[in-house]
Description:
The complex is a heterodimer.
Chain A: H1 12-19, H2 25-34, H3 39-60, H4 63-80, H5 91-107, H6 110-118, H7 121-125, H8 137-146, H9 151-161, H10 167-174, H11 178-196
Chain B: H1 3-8, H2 11-17, H3 22-34, H4 36-55, H5 65-85, H6 105-161, H7 173-177, E1 181-188, E2 196-202, E3 208-214, E4 222-230, E5 233-240, E6 246-249, E7 256-265, E8 277-282
Antiparallel strand pairs in B: 1-2, 1-8, 2-3, 3-6, 4-5, 4-7, 7-8
Helix pairs in contact in B: 2-4, 3-4
Amino acid sequence: MWKFDPIICNDPSTILEKVSTTLSQEQHIVHLLKKQDQRVIELIYTRYSHNLFNVILRIVKDQGMAQDVFQETIIKIWKKGHFYDRAKGSLYTWLVSICKHAAIDKTRSREYKQAIRTAAPEEICAPVAADPHKLNDQQAHLKQMLTNLPAHQRQIIDMAYFQGFTQEEIAHKLGIPKGTVKSRIRLALNQLRKVMHA
Amino acid sequence: MNVEDYIASGILESYVNGSLSEAEMKEVDEMAERFPEIQSEIDQIQESLRDYAAANPELPKPPALEEIMAAVKPSVHAMEEERAAAPQAPQFPTKEPSIQSMLPWKKYAWAAAAVLLVGFAAVNIYLLNQVNALKGELAGFQSQVNTLQQTNDYIQQQYVANRQQPVVIEPHNHIVADPASLEVTMTGLDPAPESEIKLYWHTQSHDIYLVIQDLPEPPKDHQYQLWAIIDEVAVDAGVFDHHLKMQKLRNIVGQVSAFRVTLEEKGGSPTPQVERTYASGQVKA
Lengths: 198, 285
């Protein structure tokens, strides 16, 4: 049984930084989940939002609807967090599973079926890119580092981790076998880590 | 498989991507727990992708945190109100009322002592009668215990004799007929449309009884699991043995809108495999 020292802090990134030396961040999040502490929403958002949003987008295929599902799901996670049982898998696996089911439920809804019927195929299948935002210093620095990542590797990371494409869809779009998609994703991520830590 | 091969297999990239099946995700969790280098690899991939997202705000992204926190506010208030409305421990007065102010005790002391004496005598007589009555009841209970012991021995003998056979509990009419029992008919879905299960949910005790009328044999190392849908979230109501005609599952408390049965790996899952939903039934208010 691990011991918990409460950390009073409103900034989630600071909380994560502080707990990293004493507890695993996951344990800290689970502790707050069990207490239905609303700070957990910020922690989950900071740590997992992009992964979870991509999981939803991959199923729903529409950015607006994926945003609705994400918002509803993260609130649901906070409300039902006390049902989480570590013995049955990691927190991340549990979160992914909840997001998948919420997204699947969405695709079964009348609203979604209506949207499928009325929207042009491209609108449903291709996520719409958001407007670029002004970058702060740290973001600009990261962006600068990314210039060392080849365009084709950025493309595959975008598709697999942010634009909600399945490996089959990437294979189809790029005209390459699925096995090649897997190895290219791995190479791209390795390269990403190299350029970020250069 | 050694750790390096495992990392090089590309499974961790798919794990972070959330594109593995639930069973595969759990397999990675187990490996990460056993080998810290695997956990470290996962953490590094996650971190790189967080940095990548920060540098590329034009990528599709979830709603802003502020938006979510604004949306969660009503729920936070509702929860706080619910907690505040929860039954509190009874409040006792901190200062006892003064008897002196009500009665001039010196004047009435003798009368009070006499009343108390009579009261004690009456209580003693009453208690004596109670003791005698309880002695009689105790003898009756002893006799019932003996009978139950004999019944228990008989059931044990039957159980040993039938150990190879699944234990079948016949449907109890009192559960089915109890007006407090809510009957939910669960009908089969795509994987097995012929499936049929009756569920009885006792609205006071919250006990759940399943009566399996038709359900196919699950594949090896798999088991059926019951889920209660509360606020659109599937709450685990326990795995069950499809061989048993009637069985009691764990209590479920809450506003259940539906019950569903999924096929899961033996021992059950924390979240359902929705695509393997075998039966479903709505709870009628």
